[in-house]
Design goal:
The protein has helices spanning 31-44, 56-63, 102-107, 146-152, 155-161, 170-177, 184-189, 223-237; strands spanning 8-11, 18-21, 46-49, 84-87, 126-133, 141-145, 165-168, 193-196, 198-200, 207-209, 215-218, 243-246, 253-257, 261-265, 276-282. The chain has 291 residues and is α+β, with helices and mostly antiparallel strands. It has a single domain (8-282), classed as Clavaminate synthase-like (Double-stranded beta-helix, 4-Layer Sandwich), CATH 3.60.130.10. Strand 1 and strand 2 (18-21) form a beta hairpin. The relative contact order is 0.24.
């Protein structure tokens, strides 16, 4: 495909998400070609591209249009690279990992609604996830509009939450699947950070609730009150009408705005089927509050 015409933007949900067609993103993009994609990203929060067979080099090149990439943390099999590998295949042998292996248990934290890298002092801008090997069924990725969630909060609750600061850490999401699963090295690598309870889009001013599974505690509240408030906010945010579910095909690439959506993985038959997804993560440019 030659990138000569305008892109087509087809909305996937009344509130957010769009499928982008009419462009080959596996080729290097000029600033003129990327401009409309970036504009669609700011507007729709989740962009789905079909039939874009990526390899690692092409995925990095496409992702870097959005900004510098994060380097993957030590808990991922692809540590030290630009890829967070999501797979049931051993990175060295390519064979399925047994379901009771700690590497498979660790990945189950992805079943909780979260925003990638919210546990970092400077949280990410967006994630780019591409299929390499795709099971024939299951394994949808689901997204939730946190702009819709913010807008739907009762005004008194919005006013209460607005000034609050939350503590995020990788250990909070990982301990939900198995307490103590993180190594001492990982714990030291990512100490808790402070995040505002919302993120604003600098282009269009849209405000999004900012919580998720890495969010463990709201500063200044006793634990039972903090737990109850985070539970209520999550319950209000993740109602079905604010979510969309993507069934993957090989060649799919999705870019999502970690400032504006939560996402989660869903189960597939990891004993019967092979799956390999590669994620690149585009770094943010500033902390949400002073650390
Ligand atoms: Fe994720």
């Amino acid at each position: 495909m030659r990138n000569t015409g305008p892109i087509t933007v087809r909305k996937l949900h009344p509130l957010f998400g769009a499928e982008i067609s009419g462009i080959d993103i596996t080729r290097p993009l000029s600033a003129r070609e990327f401009g409309p994609i970036r504009a669609a990203f700011e507007e729709h929060s989740v962009l789905v591209f079909r039939d874009q067979p990526m390899d690692d080099d092409k995925q990095i090149e496409f992702s870097e249009n959005f900004g510098p990439l994060e380097t993957t943390l030590s808990a991922n099999p692809a540590a030290g690279t630009k890829f967070a590998r999501q797979s049931n295949l051993d990175i060295n042998t390519g064979e399925p990992i047994p379901s009771d292996d700690i590497r498979m248990i660790y990945q189950k934290a992805n079943y909780f609604w979260h925003s990638d890298s919210s546990f970092k002092r400077i949280p990410s801008l967006c994630s780019v996830l591409a299929t390499r090997i795709c099971p024939p069924e299951g394994g949808n990725t689901e997204f939730c509009s946190m702009r819709a969630a913010w807008d739907a909060l009762p005004p008194a609750l919005r006013a209460t939450v607005g000034p609050m600061i939350a503590e995020h850490a990788l250990v909070y999401s990982r301990n939900r699947v198995q307490p103590g699963i993180l190594s001492a090295k990982s714990l030291a690598e990512y100490p808790p950070v402070r995040q505002r309870m919302y993120r604003d889009n600098p282009i269009n001013g849209r405000r999004a609730l900012y919580i998720g599974a890495h969010c463990g505690h709201i500063e200044g509240l006793p634990k039972p009150m903090s737990d109850a408030l985070l539970h209520e906010l999550t319950w209000r945010a993740t109602r079905p009408e604010f979510t969309l579910s993507h069934a993957w095909r090989e060649g799919d690439v999705i870019v999502w705005d970690n400032r504006a959506v939560l996402h989660r993985a869903t189960a597939y038959d990891a004993v019967k089927h092979k799956r390999l997804m590669q994620r690149t993560t585009v770094a943010g440019d500033a902390p949400t509050v002073p650390q």
